Amino acid sequence: MAVDTTFAGRVYPPGDVYVVSREKIREFAEATGATHPAHTDAAAARALGHPDVVAPPTFAVVIAQRTEAAYVDDPAAGVDFSRVVHADERFTHRRPLHAGDRVVPTLHVDAVTLRGGLAMVTTRVEIADEAGEPVATVVSTLAVRPEEDA
Amino acid sequence: MSGRPALADLVVGQELARRTVAVDRARLVRYAGSSGDFNPIHWNQRVAESVGLPGVIAHGMWTMGAAAAVVVDWAGDPGAVVDYQTRFTRPVPVPDPGHAEVEVVATVGAVDAEAGTVRVDLAVTLEGARVLGKAQAVVRLS
Known about the structure:
- The complex is a heterodimer of chains A (150) and B (142).
- Chain A has three helices and five strands.
- With 150 residues, chain A is an alpha+beta fold.
- Chain A has one domain (5-149): Thiol Ester Dehydrase, Chain A (Roll).
- Chain A has a five-stranded antiparallel beta sheet, covered by helices on one side.
- Chain A starts with 17 loop residues before the first strand and ends in a 6-residue tail after the last strand.
- The longest helix of chain B is centred in the middle third of the chain and has 16 residues, at 60-75.
- In chain B, strands 1, 2, 3, 4, 5 and 6 form a six-stranded antiparallel beta sheet that branches.
- Chain B is built from three helices and six strands.
- In chain B, 23% of the residues lie in helices and 36% in strands.
- With 142 residues, chain B is of the alpha+beta class.
- The A-B interface holds A 24, 27-28, 30-36, 38-39, 44, 47-50, 54-58, 61-62, 65-66, 81-93, 95-96, 149-150 and B 1, 21, 27, 30-31, 33-37, 39, 47, 50-52, 59-62, 64-66, 68-69, 71-73, 76-79, 81-88, 137.
- Strand 2 (84-93) of chain A pairs antiparallel with strand 2 (81-88) of chain B, so a sheet runs across the interface.
């Protein structure tokens, strides 16, 4: 099963609404050692001008990875997770995510290239609010090793 | 909140923050649960070895997140990080029993007075070897 390069350029229909919650932000912050009070204390977040607790800068990966599943879990795409290495990741925030946000992710497969046996797969998840205003962009590249590689 | 850094005080190359972060298997399980990334190479020794890894390795995104916390604490506002990118250049094996220690050093990479932003460059190492490449956070300051 090889990685199918014809998936490049594909845009998926918008995903389900993701509701950002205080408790999910708290869990994610604790797991990554993010102890800034604005992640967990609404008063501290409001003192900085935010409407509620603020997500860490990489929190959007939670939304992005579940959105990317529509592509990477598709057997036709040929992305075998036992042979995948995460190559790079980038977050661009028009504004931070905070508790209470209701956002809609849209998945783009920006590139699927073969490079000396390795397949490089770049996805982009555009996260917008329900009115369509952009919130954040998450770009991720996976390297997929060839099957016979040990 | 007072005490946030000011753009005018920053000099390229200046060290902003430094932190050593410990990671053990329990932390990886916690990250898996909080992020939804349940790839077994991050918690199952047998699976990790079967795909040619030295053992269980940390999620690259855990390392990226732990480094972000250093930037956020320095910046004084999680919302100030407007762009953050990295490459994952080397795995972080996490022993059991025990833990791995990742060191994060943040320095000023560039100052853009017009945009009101600073690029913070992150050197993230395990036993002296870089595990993240081109780890850069763009932070908005006033």
